[in-house]
Amino acid sequence: MLLSILFTLLGAVFVLVGADRFTEGSVGLARRLSVPELVIGLTVVALGTSLPEFVVSLFASIDGAASMSIGNVVGSNLFNTLMIVGCTALVLPIRVSASTVSKDIPFSLLASIVLGALALDTIFGVGENILDRGDGIALLAFFAVFMSYTFTLATRPSSSSVTSEPAAPTVESADLPSVLSISLWLLIGLAGLIGGGQLFVTGACDIARNLGVSEAVIGLTLVAGGTSLPELATSIVAARKGQSDIAIGNVVGSNLFNIFWILGTCACITPMPVQGIDWTDFAMLLLSGVLFWAFSRTQHRVIRWEGAVLVATYLGYLAWLLTQA
Predict the structure, then answer these.
(1) Which CATH code is given to the segment(s) 42-159+215-324?
(2) What CA–CA distance (Å, rounded) separates 20 from 235?
(3) Is 252 helix (H, G, I), strand (E, B) or coil?
(4) Angstrom distance (rounded) from CA 222 to CA 202
């Protein structure tokens, strides 16, 4: 137990350091390529911080622990939307761009609806609840549409739909970070995020099993929270440094990567029975997105009291979940 606690603490430290370095590298990449920070947040940062979820979900599904795999994604998205956005707003109110409110968050809501429709087959009177290879292909098709839209956005950095703060056109090339330093920060940050996330999950899962907690609850809570630590650390660090677009893009992009890319890939490799996760969890996933969208529409900001509501909603769900265990 002591070794598990040590792994958990070390993992948290590595994640925090990795988040800081990864954010620095991502901002440098955005400036060097003249790409809006929102696009970097939706793609590079979201992919990097979603890797822990991908690794955990992939190995869980291969090992026959589909409940942990799907619970990891559902729980991670709930944690991302409620805890990460909420905690980030409590630290510093965050600005949400017009394109995120009108396009990205609705697309994230669509992802939650699609996942629920594909996973809960029995609600429609069709067989058993399972994500099969056909469902995986459908999820990957949605992922391709999302990536196509995002890269189209990247080719129009001056578009009025992107409200990222101007990237200071007067910056000389000599003031830009070098390719070597950007690559170094990205690699060091990614290593810290992935390695720290894995240490945290390993320690947390060992603690949970010693306490006799079920696999589904582990996936929805400890594993989800642990694999979402990179998103939490990255978003808070980015917001404190004034990169709100990276903070919000990280959350929205990670949610889309989790559902479309991670579950799509895992389902294509091996069918995934949906057990221990029911319609209430998927309804909560949709509610979290609706709350985030509603708060973001108010002056395109998420302020402290709204962040407190998001955090309280997650804690309430967590308390209810533990009573059902």
Answers:
(1) 1.20.1420.30
(2) 10
(3) helix
(4) 10
